[in-house]
Every structure is written in structure tokens, then in C-alpha cells.
Amino acid sequence: MPAEYILRFLEDYEFDEDQREMTRALLTDYLKDELQQDSLRKWRVVIMEGPNGEKLDLPGIGQIGTVVRSRLRNTDDDLANIRILTSAEDRIAGIDWEGGETPPKGADLVVERSERHPDEGILRLYFLDRTSAPAASATTRVPLDAVGIVTGISVDFPESSTPDKAIGYVIANVPGASGHRGSRCSGRRRQGRRARAGRRR
Q1: Has residue 19 been placed in a domain?
Q2: Helix and strand element counts for the chain (H, E)
Q3: Does this model's pTM top 0.90?
Q4: Total domains present in the chain
Q5: With bands split at pLDDT 50, 70 and 90, how would you rate the model's confidence at 16?
Q6: Residue 100 domain-assigned?
Q7: 97-149: pLDDT as tens digits
Q8: Full 3-state SS string of 133-161
């Protein structure tokens, strides 16, 4: 997908106003600077699905399964903090693998991603089940309990083609990932627990 569509999407996407680690300005400024260097002109868009979430009909795509992401217990009652949106396993999505090939893990996956798609960004879209109940054995989590399906994003950049001119970028702590960039979803819950990270304006 052309970068212009990704840029338009990011400019329309409503980030939580209290989120400082991943903001519209950080992402769009970085992308614009890369485009000026003739980099990141092509993007891969991946819709992440889950087996246990409610179903959602996406125009032009069809029905998908939403993703379950429960929130942390004992947080501010107005805050729906899921901590991590993108799991280590999610990071293989959007990368071309040969049939029967076993994707690497950790830092090796980061290297492999940049080598296979050095000029392409990856945008992963998460549509979160509004209930998102945790596993029965979970003691530190409670249901998300949002008033509607929440849209979360993960933005995955390759290594910059012009590191001497690269600007600051967003770093997210993803389990098992070293150097993975751009994944976050937390937000204020208003109007009866509404997770605001992930709304289109």
C-alpha cells in the first residue's frame, strides 16, 4: 500500500491525549522525513485476528474475529491499560515466509524482518473485543469492559536507510523483541469504561 494512505490513516487516528510514547506527531513526522529520503514508500497492512473474540464485519473484507486484550487490575479506574498490544508471536505477521519455514525469534526476527522487507513498513491493525475477559487463572487482569470495539495499532519500521539522518522513533517494550518499534494501546475509559486509544476521528 502506498505510504500516502498510511500517513492519512495516522493523521486521522485518535491517539490517547495522555499517551506520550506513541503520538500522532512522532509517527507522522518520522514517516514524512523518511519519505523525503525516498524510503518507506510501500507498506504492508495486516489485520490481526483472534479465535475467541466477538465477530466484526469489515467493509470490503468480510467477517473477522476480534482480539482479546484484558486490562491490568488495580489501575486508575479511568484508565484501560492493557500494557502490551503486540505479542512476540504477532511480529511474524506481515513478513513473507516460505512454506514450512520456522520464523526466528527475538533479535534474529528483527534482523530477518529488515532483510526481507528493508524498504517497507508494516501496519498491524487490532480490533479488540469489547469485553476481553482474561483467562480464569489470571490474577492481575480484569475484563477490558469497553463500550465498543477498540482499534489498536502496531507500527513496525525497518532499519532506517539513512541512519545518519534518522530521527527519533517510538520504542515499545515487546516481550522477546530487541529493537522492535511502535506498539502501544492504553487509554482513558470514559462513558462507562471506554478505551480511547484506538478511535478514528
Answers
A1: yes
A2: 3, 12
A3: no
A4: 1
A5: confident
A6: no
A7: 998 899 999 999 999 999 999 999 999 999 999 999 999 999 999 999 999 99
A8: CCCCCCCCEECCCCCCCEEEEEEECCCCC
Whether 8 maps to a domain, the answer reads: yes
Task: Give just the sign of the alpha carbon dihedral 41, 124, 173, 200.
Answer: positive
pLDDT of residue 92: 95
The size of the chain, in residues, is: 201
Domain residue limits at 75? 3-93+105-200
Helical H runs in 60-178? Answer: 106-116
Closest-CA residue to 67 (of 164, 198, 188): 198
Does residue 175 carry a pLDDT above 90? no
Question: Do 159 and 131 meet the contact criterion of CB atoms below 8 Å apart?
Answer: no
CB atoms within 10 A of CB 101: 8
- Please check the confidence at residue 193 and state whether its pLDDT lies above 80: no
**Half-sphere CA count of 145, side-chain side, radius 13 A:** 15
